Amino acid sequence: MRDTGPDCDVVISSRVRLARNLRHQPFPLLATGQQAIEVQKQLTAVNEEGQLNDIGKFDTILLSDLSELDKRVLVEKHLISPALANESRGGAVMLSDNEAVSIMINEEDHLRIQCLYPGFQIAEAWALANGIDDKFEEVADYAFDEKRGYLTTCPTNVGTGIRASVMMHLPALVLTQQINRILSAVTQVGLAVRGLYGEGSEALGNLFQISNQITLGLSEEEIIDNLHGVAKQIVEHERAARKRLLEESRVRVEDRVRRSYGILSHALIMDSKEAAQRLSDVRLGADLGILPHITPQVMNELLVMTQPGFLQQTFNEKMSAEQRDCRRADLIREKLGSQTNLGGAEQ
Description:
Elements lengths: L10 E10 L12 H16 L9 E5 L5 H9 L5 H4 L6 E5 L4 E5 L5 E8 L3 H16 L6 E2 L3 E2 L11 E8 L1 H5 L3 H10 L2 E4 L12 E6 L7 H47 L5 H16 L8 H10 L2 H8 L5 H23 L4
Antiparallel strand pairs: 1-5, 1-8, 2-3, 3-4, 4-5, 6-7, 8-10, 9-10
Helix pairs in contact: 2-10, 7-8, 8-9, 10-11
């Protein structure tokens, strides 16, 4: 969230996830507790024995050692899935020191390798995930069928086992009421549209996750190329919509941005839904030069830092919903104030 990448004015992040299972072990949904522990030990040994050293430094974390709050924070940071957070049998995660790589064990599948990059770097994320996959394949016997490819718990992942996605900030397409037409076209070319936290989640803060639906019948490179081509077109549509807003409705856009900035800068209570929308407005203002002293990266950070679990961890206290709303407002005011001090008073 702190780093920048290509096309980061529209594409917040790029992610590739690979699903794999071991041939001679029951898939997680059918495994006993002891079998899940055996899988955990076999896969974490890849890190403990140094096979991942060429990739980077990884910490192995057992989910059984974490509090519910710690697990919630990992979910909010997109480092583990909600499904893994709720898994009590042999769940583990291997995290790279910069948290760009998350390797989940005993989630829906035995192994899920996730690589997360800032901006529009889907090909780079795939290259890294593929390299890590090779390291595991050197020592693990994957469940693989010559005709069907990699075998997975969910049939929609069978084949390549790859899910590639980009998280996109599309406020101008929403404001110009083009978003439904664009997203409808996206689904017709075999891609899925989800919210901030994946399947079943709401598109808060004008953030949309675009990902492949087809994993069988295409190569990994074809899947990546298809997603890249469609996402590039969405980037162009969003930028055109932003230009149109400035040309045709500049006063209204500036008013919306500055109202949200003013509320975020002074509010004493802020729920998560309102925070997401107003942070989206301010980030749009930063990208359009309306608020030049605000960096988009701070808006990205706040999207994570204002989530319920992260707030409670930051302030080291368990909070009621109202207490979280107050602390959220405090944190946002502090962050925006630091931006004003760094960039000088807003003109």
